Amino acid sequence: MSKKIAVLSDFHCGHKVGLTPRGYLPEEPAEERSRWVNANKAYYNWYNQNIRKNGPYDIIFLNGDLVDGTGKKSGGTEQITTDMEEQCDMAVKIIREIPKTKNCKIVITRGTPYHTGDAEDWENIIAERVDAAIGEHEWVDVEGVIFDLKHHPAGSSGIPHGRHSGVARDRLWNLIWAEKELQPKGDIFIRSHVHYHNFAGGPDWLAMTTPALQGFGSRFGSRRCTGIVDFGFVIFTVNKGTYTWQPIIAKLEEQKAPMIKL
């Protein structure tokens, strides 16, 4: 029987352009906040429409950074809330609203300590509340296809043609670990964290970084990053050892950089 899988990551709930469910944003924001509030609403509306349109799902992989953290480096100035319990509430609400089949299974991989807790592991609370398995680096057998799941890829790249090298390296290391019979041999390698969708593969393997579900507008991204950011998620359909996959990527007016006209 075929299984439909939704692969989502990098909600960054709590950040002003993190994935924010209804009820957590001001309905009539002050003028200086209206731009990011309206952009946030547009991101969530796109996500909500597309996750529902393509469901329901038999399996959901949530590949880390589901909350944004307290924003220590920016003094919390980029946060909708610095209350970690409230950020977890946001993530739980998003996950519960994903359309699911009756026996849907959820697997979470833990994200970056800066966002999800240096000691606390706040994503553990999310996993408990949505009845999900959780780990650091997980292997999941779906209809004979082995998914290798981890939040961080082996590396990122500032050049377009190097963006697939980190996940290709992860696949090669898996072959070495598997030869020593210390890891399952993966077929599909899912990594996240870098907020761009790229992939590499061959006749018997596929490796990718997933798009993020945090929108444009963080200080770090605006001031230090130059590469394309992808907002969206990925869907797999697996059936008896074979699979198809489709990235669902947003293209919104709110993603366009404003221009000053003098």
Topology:
Elements: E1 3-8, H1 34-53, E2 57-62, H2 84-96, E3 100-109, H3 113-116, H4 123-129, E4 133-135, E5 137-142, E6 145-150, H5 165-179, E7 188-191, E8 198-202, E9 205-209, H6 219-224, E10 232-239, E11 242-249
Parallel strand pairs: 1-2, 2-3, 3-4, 6-7, 7-9
Antiparallel strand pairs: 1-10, 5-6, 8-9, 10-11
* Mean pLDDT reading: 92
Compressed to H and E, one letter per element, the order equals: EHEHEHHEEEHEEEHEE
At CATH's second level, what is the architecture? Answer: 4-Layer Sandwich
Q: State the helix count.
A: 6
- Give the spatial strand order of the biggest sheet: 4-3-2-1-10-11
Oligomer: single chain
What do we call the CATH topology? Purple Acid Phosphatase, chain A, domain 2
Instruction: Give the fraction of residues assigned to helices.
Output: 10-25%
- Radius of gyration (CA) equals 18 Å
**End-to-end C-alpha gap:** 61 Å
List its traits.
262 residues, alpha/beta, Purple Acid Phosphatase, chain A, domain 2, six-stranded mixed beta sheet, five-stranded mixed beta sheet, 11 strands, globular
Describe the structure.
The protein starts with a strand and ends in a 13-residue tail after the last strand. The chain contains six helices and eleven strands. A six-stranded mixed sheet has the order 4-3-2-1-10-11, with helices on one face. It has one domain (3-254): Purple Acid Phosphatase, chain A, domain 2, CATH 3.60.21. The longest helix has 20 residues, at 34-53. Helix content is 25%, strand content 26%. It has helices spanning 34-53, 84-96, 113-116, 123-129, 165-179, 219-224; strands spanning 3-8, 57-62, 100-109, 133-135, 137-142, 145-150, 188-191, 198-202, 205-209, 232-239, 242-249. α2 runs parallel beside α4. The model has no long low-confidence stretch (mean pLDDT 92). 39% of the residues are buried. It has 262 residues and is an alpha/beta fold.
